[in-house]
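Schema walk-through. Below, the input block comes first and the output block second. Nothing else is stored per chain. Lengths vary across the set, and this one has 290 residues.
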Amino acid sequence: MDLAMPGNAQVGVKPGKRPGRVIPGFGLSLGFTLFYLALIVLIPLSAVFLNTFNLTWEGFWSAVTSERVVASYRLSFGASFIAALINVVFGGIVAWVLVRYQFPGKRFVDALVDLPFALPTAVAGITLTSLYSHNGWIGQYLAEWGIKVAFSPLGIVVALTFIGLPFVVRTVQPVLEEAERELEEAAASLGASPLQTFIRVVLPSITPALLTGFALAFARATGEYGSVIFIAGNLPMVSEITPLLIISKLEQYDYAGATAIAVVMLIFSFILLLTINLLQAWTRKRAGKP
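--- output ---
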């Protein structure tokens, strides 16, 4: 008996009839997606911009460029940039160790990388403050060298480094796992030193991932609040971050001023998001993926 079926026929589906879909069609799915995004994302963000219309242009410019606000920008963006750079270096090393070496407790160390994701930010801030205060386990030894971490801008960098590390590690790790080690072996066989092999073979392949991890860690750090307020000290013009300044204005019922500063942060977040998307597209293009 010939059991061959026509090329377009499917088991359980009558000829000429389209198979049923598990989820609704494109039109309904797209409509639900747009409605959900509008309800959760677009409408709240639009409200931030609309609230700034209560201010004149002079009032808006004065609110976002006052000396105290500019100092908070400088601290938030500067500390976030430094923390992201630190994470690029040490996050890349952690990813390298987790991919290229086998050692006892590797799975435990791999799980620890995700701890900043799972740990409440307030708990992280309290823990870091207790560790780096002048009588803490680590801070007491740093104090002997005149290094003050807790309640200073340096403490903000420490907190932002803590919460940004997983973004770099988890971005670089899969790229290293897919890297072709034959190229490294070929470079070594041609007489290249380990350092030359890393700089000329490994580093170019992971550079897009490092840049993406940097952008993600930087974007995450600029909006961080919970883990920073406990270790920062929150002194105006010294250790006051922009999110805390927004909260302070809300507590003073200065909604227009708070939303004006929030608009600046929101625009900066959009720029970071666009940068991250461009970096990810570049990464896919280099990897030959659509």
